[in-house]
Write a structure and sequence with these properties.
With 200 residues, this protein is of the alpha+beta class. The protein is built from five helices and six strands, in the order ααβαβββαββα. Strands 2-6-4-3-1-5 form a six-stranded antiparallel sheet. Strand 3 and strand 4 form a beta hairpin. It is globular.
Length: 200
C-alpha cells in the first residue's frame, strides 16, 4: 500500500530511493511481527489539527513515549539528571505516514531494536490503529503500566497494518560531561529482548 503522503507527490519524486528491495523491507515493517513490544497510546483532543486528524509532529511524541516507557520499565533507565549515570540524546528521528488517525482513537505503538552499539541504540517503530469496529479496544491499567509483548491476545484488537512507521537513534552520554558512555550489561540485556534473531 502506498503511503497517503506519497500519493500527493509527482511520480518522479515518489520513485526516488525506493528500490523493490527497500520497498519489501518497508512493507515488512508495517506488520506486528516486526516488533517485540507494544504500548497503547490514548490520543488527546489537542493532538488533532484543523484537518481533523493527529498532526504529524505528534507522532514523534508517541514514539518517544514508547521508547522511554520501555527503557524505564524494562531496562532500568533512571531519568533524574542528579541520579542517573547516563542520559539518552535523540540524534535521529524519521516518520513515514501511511494512513491518518484521529482523537479519540486508541492506537498501539510498537517498538523493536535494530542495533545496539557501544553507546547508541537504533530503534524501529510503528503505530497500529484500532480495528474498524464499533467496539473500542479494551485497555486497562496494566496495559498502560506494563505494555505487552508480541503474541499477546490484545494485538487482535489492532489493525495488522501500521498507519505510521519510523526509526530513531539514541546516543547515551554521561550527564556531567555530555560525552558518550558505554551501555551497562543489564541495560543491553533489556534491549536485546527486542532484537530480531537476524539483528543479534
Amino acid at each position: 500500500m502506498t503511503c497517503w503522503g506519497s500519493r500527493l507527490l509527482p511520480g518522479n519524486l515518489r520513485s526516488l530511493g525506493t528500490s523493490p528491495k527497500s520497498q519489501r523491507v518497508a512493507d515488512c515493517h508495517r506488520h506486528h511481527e516486526a516488533y517485540g513490544y507494544f504500548l497503547p497510546i490514548q490520543t488527546r483532543w489537542q493532538d488533532n489539527d484543523q484537518y481533523g486528524h493527529v498532526n504529524n509532529a505528534v507522532y514523534y511524541s508517541y514514539f518517544d513515549t514508547i521508547i522511554n516507557h520501555y527503557l524505564i520499565r524494562y531496562c532500568g533507565l533512571r531519568t533524574s539528571l542528579l541520579k542517573s549515570p547516563m542520559v539518552g540524546f535523540m540524534v535521529t528521528n524519521q516518520c513515514t505516514f501511511h494512513t491518518p488517525i484521529s482523537f479519540p482513537q486508541v492506537p498501539v505503538a510498537a517498538l523493536a531494536v535494530e542495533k545496539v552499539g557501544h553507546s547508541s541504540v537504533h530503534y524501529r517503530l510503528a503505530l497500529f490503529p484500532p480495528k474498524d469496529t464499533k467496539e473500542l479496544p479494551s485497555v486497562n491499567h496494566w496495559d498502560l503500566s506494563d505494555g505487552f509483548f508480541f503474541g499477546h491476545p490484545k494485538l487482535a484488537h489492532f489493525d495488522s497494518s501500521a498507519c505510521t512507521t519510523g526509526s530513531s537513534v539514541h546516543v547515551f552520554v554521561n550527564p556531567a560531561t555530555s560525552k558518550p558512555t558505554g551501555l551497562p550489561e543489564d541495560f543491553r540485556k533489556g534491549l536485546r529482548r527486542l532484537m530480531s534473531p537476524a539483528s543479534v
